[in-house]
């Protein structure tokens, strides 16, 4: 089978779809570009499907390289038969490939290898193939200075048998099958660690079938193990039955060699096979748990990045604090810092009245249209302060501070604001993320943004790859204003990256705003290929060509102009007139690489040039009577905002430090399989307080009967 055939069968896609997508990827096309502008070639595959093809293609190519290495290694040992070569060349399963290779794999010095060096391999062969001979009698022939007695000879022979059994492909499949159908994962608290391990209390004595163990439970147990509080094991439910199946091909009951073979096979299982399979299933289950956690994190991140922006407004950003005061910044409609200062309305200074007057004066002086208050320490108290200033026509928003401190201490923040300290940068970040969450959050490591499920416990490389792809997808879905975007935002545009993003910023600083997309070709090192990949995702507002502010790719400008000409108008009229567009027969323009998918996309873009697909941010207010956990009572119904979604439920901010959990079973009056089907990040909800655990700082909530 070819790589395309395997991927096609695996994903249920046509082979030509897969082959064309692989060809585009190998030619340097990005996932956003392929899914948006090459629908005819791929048969309309979306970003997820193109990404799946890329991942499978990469993993299969790695398998091909691994096969080549294994063939070279075995051939170098002089053990590569034609049959073995064919088996390896035809193998497309990584686990099977490693099982085939295992007997030939160079090893560190093992007990079996030490026994072979003492000349005991013939005795091991005798035990396995001539079970009717008396082992003790046969062992006498192998005594030497290195093998002083019969027991030493038999022990060495058993070591060789154990290794042979453990490396047998069929035997490994028997044990693997037992793990697959009945593996149980167990965790127990480490002796004398119970007092310190309170957060892992649920797993002090826990076991369940591995195949039913959810991602969050497995990751919680593995975290407890990594921190030294839990001991986690994976075993078949019935180890005796598993061992009996392993023994069956090797032990002939009633023969003189039976006892020796039983000991050797039991040793093979306990010392070699079971630990090997436990590691294999620990790795594969962790990988699956990682994939699920990463998928949840990426989904949450996408929702957060695509949250509605307030847009270009003059914003006051406030980073609240008690002792150190509240850092206040005033930003213009483009997010530039105009003014900053510190007020001290809270304890210990308590300059409440003066702070109210100061906010009113700043709002008047800088014509503030909205206020963004950080939702951390002193956030609710500062929100009350702003409301008391009675800023007419000014909306007040509580904005998540997650990641603001990470940004404010970053090299990027120092580069943007070299003359200001971290507190001012943090307040700017809070204000800017109200104006445009996507543009600001791309500057922060996604792991610091505060959405996800055990994100610090998953494989970092896989997490980073997924989150980078998510950010890239969001940036290219929305599109980027070429003349205002930061280097951070431009970095994620299809076909660019950090170096070209910096070159664009430098060119813009030296030459002024871009008048057209074609001017991108004047940017140093930005060639035709990069231009092809990035141009459709960059927007120019008020440029020379109206199409530069749409997702229509420059390669299709001539097609749009032809449509306008055939309709007896110019492009501007075509965009402004829905009636004119309705009269166009798109089938007339299907030719070559242009089909109905591309033509339909073009017409959709002409209907909404420059429109932001995210909508606009809405004002939300918490219950003014709630400030801490002590203010909550069971049965209360209060407003909240969804801040994080996991497989077991979602967390809701009610305006107090503790975020409540709505378990998946409490999300709706009907069965809910996936919380993401019911709620989304930053959704405004009404919740009922079900249970308050003050000792552990936990609140259980419900949405049943409230939606």
Describe this structure in words.
The structure is a single chain. The chain is α/β, with parallel strands linked by helices and 707 residues long. It has 29 helices and 15 strands. The strands form 4 sheets. A 5-stranded mixed sheet has the order 6-5-4-7-8, sandwiched between helices. A 5-stranded mixed beta barrel has the order 11-12-13-15-14. The relative contact order is 0.07. The mean pLDDT is 94.
In short:
By secondary structure, this protein is α/β, with parallel strands linked by helices.
Using brief descriptors, characterize the structure shown:
five-stranded mixed beta barrel; 707 residues; globular; alpha/beta
- Total number of β-strand segments? 15
Structural class: alpha/beta
Helix run count: 29
- Classify the beta-strand content into a percent band: 5-15%
Name the average pLDDT.
Answer: 94
Low-confidence segments? none
Major sheet description: 5 strands, mixed
Strand order of the largest sheet: 6-5-4-7-8
Query: Measured on Cα atoms, how large is the radius of gyration?
Result: 33 Å
- The first-to-last residue Cα distance is 52 Å
Shape by Cα distribution:
globular
The helix content is 40-55%
């Amino acid at each position: 089978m070819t790589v395309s055939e395997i991927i096609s069968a695996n994903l249920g896609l046509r082979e030509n779809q897969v082959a064309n997508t692989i060809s585009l990827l190998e030619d340097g096309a990005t996932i956003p570009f392929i899914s948006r502008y090459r629908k005819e070639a791929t048969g309309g595959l979306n970003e997820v499907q193109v990404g799946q093809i890329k991942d499978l293609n990469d993993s299969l190519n790695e398998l091909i390289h691994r096969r080549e290495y294994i063939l070279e290694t075995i051939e170098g040992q002089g053990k590569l038969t034609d049959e073995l070569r064919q088996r390896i060349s035809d193998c497309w399963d990584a686990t099977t490939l490693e099982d085939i290779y295992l007997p030939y794999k160079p090893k560190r010095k093992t007990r079996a290898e030490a026994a072979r060096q003492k000349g005991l391999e013939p005795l091991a062969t005798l035990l396995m193939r001539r079970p009717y001979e008396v082992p003790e009698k046969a062992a006498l022939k192998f005594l030497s200075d290195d093998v002083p007695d019969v027991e030493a000879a038999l022990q060495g022979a058993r070591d060789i048998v154990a290794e042979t059994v453990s490396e047998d492909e069929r035997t490994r499949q028997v044990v693997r099958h037992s793990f697959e159908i009945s593996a149980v994962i167990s965790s127990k608290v480490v002796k004398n660690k119970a007092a310190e391990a309170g957060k892992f209390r649920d797993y002090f004595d826990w076991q369940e079938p591995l195949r039913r163990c959810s991602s969050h439970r497995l990751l919680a147990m593995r975290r407890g193990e990594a921190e030294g509080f839990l001991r986690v094991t994976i075993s078949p439910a019935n180890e005796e039955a598993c061992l009996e199946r392993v023994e069956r091909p090797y032990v002939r009951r009633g023969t003189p060699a039976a006892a020796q073979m039983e000991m050797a096979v039991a040793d093979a299982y306990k010392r070699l096979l079971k630990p090997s399979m436990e590691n294999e299933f620990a790795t594969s289950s962790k990988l699956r748990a990682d994939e699920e956690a990463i998928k949840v994190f990426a989904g949450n991140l996408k929702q957060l990045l695509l949250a509605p922006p307030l847009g270009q407004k003059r914003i006051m950003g406030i980073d609240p604090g008690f002792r150190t005061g509240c850092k206040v910044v005033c930003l213009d409609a483009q997010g530039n810092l105009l003014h900053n200062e510190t007020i001290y309305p809270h304890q210990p200074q308590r300059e409440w009245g003066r702070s109210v007057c100061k906010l009113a004066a700043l709002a008047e002086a800088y014509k503030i249209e909205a206020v963004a208050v950080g939702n951390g320490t002193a956030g609710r108290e500062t929100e009350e302060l702003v409301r008391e200033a009675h800023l007419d026509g000014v909306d007040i928003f509580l904005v998540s501070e997650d990641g603001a401190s990470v940004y404010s201490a970053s090299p990027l923040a120092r580069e943007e604001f070299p003359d200001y300290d971290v507190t001012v940068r943090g307040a700017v970040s809070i204000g800017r993320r109200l104006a445009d969450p996507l543009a600001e959050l791309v500057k922060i490591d996604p792991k610091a943004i505060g959405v996800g499920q055990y994100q610090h416990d998953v494989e970092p490389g896989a997490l980073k790859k997924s989150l980078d792809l998510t950010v890239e997808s969001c940036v290219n879905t929305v599109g980027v204003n070429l003349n205002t975007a930061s280097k951070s935002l431009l970095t994620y545009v299809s076909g660019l990256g950090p170096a070209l993003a910096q070159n664009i910023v430098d060119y813009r600083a030296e030459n002024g705003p871009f008048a057209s997309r074609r001017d991108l070709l004047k940017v140093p090192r930005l060639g035709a290929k990069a231009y092809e990949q990035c141009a459709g995702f960059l927007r120019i507002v008020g440029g020379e060509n109206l199409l530069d502010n749409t997702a229509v790719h420059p390669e299709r400008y001539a097609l749009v102009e032809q449509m306008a000409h055939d309709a007896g108008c110019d492009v501007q009229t075509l965009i402004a007139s829905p009636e004119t567009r309705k009269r166009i027969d798109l089938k007339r323009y299907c030719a070559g690489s242009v089909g109905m998918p591309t033509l339909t996309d073009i017409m959709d873009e002409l209907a909404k040039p420059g429109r932001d697909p995210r909508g606009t941010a809405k004002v939300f207010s918490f219950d003014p009577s709630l400030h801490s956990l002590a203010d909550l009572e069971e049965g209360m119904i209060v407003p909240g905002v969804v801040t994080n979604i996991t497989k077991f439920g979602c967390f809701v901010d009610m305006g107090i430090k503790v975020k409540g959990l709505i378990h998946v079973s409490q999300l709706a009056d009907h069965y809910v399989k996936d919380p993401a089907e019911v709620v989304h990040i930053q959704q405004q909800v009404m919740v009922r307080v079900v249970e308050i655990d003050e000792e552990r700082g936990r609140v259980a909530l419900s949405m049943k009967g409230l939606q």
